[in-house]
């Protein structure tokens, strides 16, 4: 028997103003992205902004549906848009934020397991780290240097991608 330990490291900034200018700007883009959220059921708006290597920014938000499982998280709306139209332009960083009028958010929201899986595969596809900024508007920002460290057990089978 062999026991393994996995360590996950991330940086916590008390407020967004502690970030460098580019990261602050990307967090602001995630806030802007919430404006297009379609969340009449949860009233929980989520915005995501992708900073691409070319400088382009992709905005996305959560999109709900009256048939609940038909909705999709902001992260995956953003990443599938990237995959469909900008996959040759690597994602440098991704900022995610949220807001609801129902209760205060005191710490950053974290992505669901399905989004982490998609984030991990996008990182693999582009063959470079995808930084993640989880931004609490009135609280801290968590910065993770790559998705691999957030999803060490991501499902990935090389033989499904490249014939052996
Ligand atoms: Zn999700």
End-to-end distance, in Å? 30 Å
In terms of per-residue confidence, which ranges show pLDDT below 50 for 5 or more consecutive residues? Answer: none
Q: In total, how many domains does the architecture comprise?
A: 1
Please tell me how large the radius of gyration is. Answer: 16 Å
Q: From the 3D coordinates, which CATH architecture would you assign? A: 3-Layer(aba) Sandwich
- Total strands: the figure is 6
- Tell me the major beta sheet: 6 strands, mixed
For this structure, what is the CATH homologous superfamily? Answer: Cytidine Deaminase, domain 2
- Spatial strand arrangement across the major sheet: 1-6-5-4-2-3
Write down the overall geometry: globular
What small ligands are held by the chains? zinc ion
Order of helices and strands: EHEEHEHEEH
β-strand percent reads 15-25%
The averaged pLDDT comes out at 96
| Helix coverage percent | 25-40%
Number of continuous helical runs: 4
Structural commentary:
The chain has helices at 21-33, 74-85, 113-126, 158-161, and strands spanning 11-13, 44-52, 57-61, 91-100, 131-135, 141-144. It is α+β, with helices and mostly antiparallel strands and 164 residues long. It has a six-stranded mixed beta sheet with strand order 1-6-5-4-2-3. The longest helix is centred in the C-terminal third of the chain and has 14 residues, at 113-126. 32% of the residues are buried.
């Amino acid at each position: 028997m062999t026991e393994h330990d996995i360590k996950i490291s991330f940086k916590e900034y008390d407020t967004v103003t502690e970030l460098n200018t580019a990261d602050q700007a990307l967090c602001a883009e995630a806030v802007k992205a919430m404006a297009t959220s379609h969340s009449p059921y949860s009233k929980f708006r989520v915005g995501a902004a992708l900073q691409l290597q070319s400088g382009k920014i992709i905005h996305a938000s959560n999109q709900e549906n009256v048939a609940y499982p038909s909705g999709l998280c902001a992260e995956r709306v953003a990443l599938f848009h990237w995959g469909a139209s900008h996959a040759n332009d690597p994602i440098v960083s991704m900022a995610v934020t949220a807001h609801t009028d129902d209760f205060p958010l005191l710490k950053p929201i974290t992505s669901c397991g399905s989004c982490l899986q998609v984030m991990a595969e996008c990182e693999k596809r582009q063959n470079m780290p995808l930084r993640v900024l989880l931004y609490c508007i009135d609280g801290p920002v968590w910065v993770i240097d790559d998705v691999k460290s957030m999803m060490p057990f991501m499902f990935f089978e090389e033989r499904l991608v490249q014939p052996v």
